[in-house]
Amino acid sequence: IFLTPVKRHINIRIVVRNFISISTTTINNIIMYNSRSRHEIFSLLAVTIAAIVLVHQPATVRCADGGIITPQQQQQQTMMFTAPTGYYVSTYDHIDVGRLLRNNKVVSGYVKCFVNEGPCTPDGKLVKAYLLPEIIRTVCGKCTPRQKDMARMVLKHIYTYRQADFEKIMQIYDTDGKRNEILAFMNH
């Protein structure tokens, strides 16, 4: 299963907002000049409401098999990784990141998983669907000091040795425009 965050680009939001504005004006004109039937008015109103819902719809994760992971499911899964202290649980803290990064085959496998170019291990699926998007969105805000060090090592490695893959990851997961904050975090 490949998971892909559904991105909401700002230019789409602007187009939809403009559409809503135009639709509202059109509805007012229709009502004032009574030039169309009630059916047309309600159809246009329904399209306007659908556009409003689209603008305010939170990002979801779509699976290649057609399944969808809702923001609520993402939050529940992320909570599984969060300890009562508010930090992520220490499930992966024992991993020797340096050793892992020296194994190009393993790194390639995970990167391909994260950028939708290859299969994912069970751990890769969890990281891809829940942790990676949140870590980038919050700039590792719930990470313990150990986890921040691990995240920095991985991000620096990918940025330094796999620049194209780093760009793909940021394009997919940086939906909130945190690139500069991520770069500052890496160099902290």
TrEMBL record:
InterPro entries: A10/PebIII, OS_D_A10/PebIII_sf. This is Ejaculatory bulb-specific protein 3-like. Gene3D superfamilies: Insect odorant-binding protein A10/Ejaculatory bulb-specific protein 3. It comes from the Eukaryota.
